[in-house]
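Fold it.
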Amino acid sequence: MPDLRSRRSVSQAVLVKLLSAELTDWSRRAPGRVVVDLGGGTGGMAMDLASAGYRVKVVDPSPDALAALERRTAEQGLIGRVSGIQGDASDLVDLVGAAAADVVVCHRVLEVLDDPVQALAAIQEVVSPGGALSLLAGQRHAAVLTQALGGHLAQARRTWVDPDRLDRDRILELVLGAGFAVRATHGIGAVADHVSETLLDAEPGAYADLLALETEIATDPAFQALAPQLHVFAVKGDGVVGSSSPT
């Protein structure tokens, strides 16, 4: 019987695993159970967090995504733990309230915004003192490599010189500039995103090995720079952790 876990992206599984570990460690010092998931869509991350005991407010501009979120919440028996709010980063404070969230999740959103500085300022205002930020953002180097290997060389060159494309240094600069202290960084998908689903289905133990490998290399700076996504876990305010970024 095929391993049903292989139907889920290994990268997503690694992200959930790493974020859960960071939240568990953080909550020992600053317990909190209210999460705002900015751009959370149909609830891919919200369902995992709600199942772990958090109350999650998903903020998303798409009414269709929020309708799907509502159906998914009911199907998984999480009514009362997950709710949807229509909106985006520009009106986040008005929608949620200042210092109203123990954790803000902002995954795969920052790189598509016109003003990431403004978005992170809004997130910082929404997070309570000592609260946490889980940020996942796409990176330029991986996009260039993927486009080039796919034969889209002109597109790869445009991506390389695009000043709005983010990389590890710029992402950390934005997070620190918004007043967060970085606790951990993880590269997501550096290897897994290049492994075919066919291999995972056909090779016994491949899923477990790939999951272990991705977890092991996630903190390596070289793999982080090449990963399609960089995950940053940070906390708001001084005195909780150091304010300098990890090496």
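The beta strands are 34-38, 55-60, 82-86, 101-107, 127-138, 180-188, 229-236.
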